[in-house]
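Review form for a predicted model. The reviewer records the input and the model, then writes brief findings.
Reviewer: anonymous (R2)
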Amino acid sequence: MKKFFLMALSFIFVGTVGNAKVTGNENDAKTPDGVEAVDLGLSVKWANMNVGATKDSGFGSYFAWGEIKPKKFYSWGTYIWSKGDSQFLLKYSTTDRKIQLTPSDDAARANWGGEWRIPTVDECEELVDPDKCSWEWTTKDGVNGYKVTGKKTGNSIFLPITGFRFYGDVQFRAINGIYWSSTLYSGNPNKAWCIEFDFSDVNVHFGKLSSNRFSGRCIRAVR
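Model under review:
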């Protein structure tokens, strides 16, 4: 009887581990074909394309900060973490004092699975640090943007200009690249940090262009 009990317990344990492993594989399988983690010699590896894109020059999808699905209209009224107004935030506010996106609210994790996530503001700062990466304005597949090359490894990624979605329109698509970080701007919970660039300037900012959380921006994931 004791031997039978141990065998049964062993079967249950192995079965549980097996199921957990399958779940993990299914999560990893969300990552689209062609997506790669590029080693730029930084603290994290950067994806070679935007979330929702099929190639590195593609814009991909636009997400409000903390939302995991793209949509057609971006406003405080359609923002999931607001009661319709910037003064009534439901999460990541002066009430809960959360400034970092949780995995459940991370569009990169939700859409690509595995260990993919939106970069923190510190990781964005690392990417734009001229001592660590060079930024070269260029054109790829007819799309303007920057070739970003890690100085330690010589590997590079292409960041296309994207603009951002504000209400029902895409604004500044032909001028600016704007990418969310996963970090809220602590000085104003209506805004979050992002990488912003044009042909003459690259910066990590919270408000050079409208960085209200409800606006739709592109995401370049890390892992």
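Findings: The helical segments are 2-28, 107-112, 121-128.
Further findings: The chain has one domain: 31-205.
Recommendation: see findings above.
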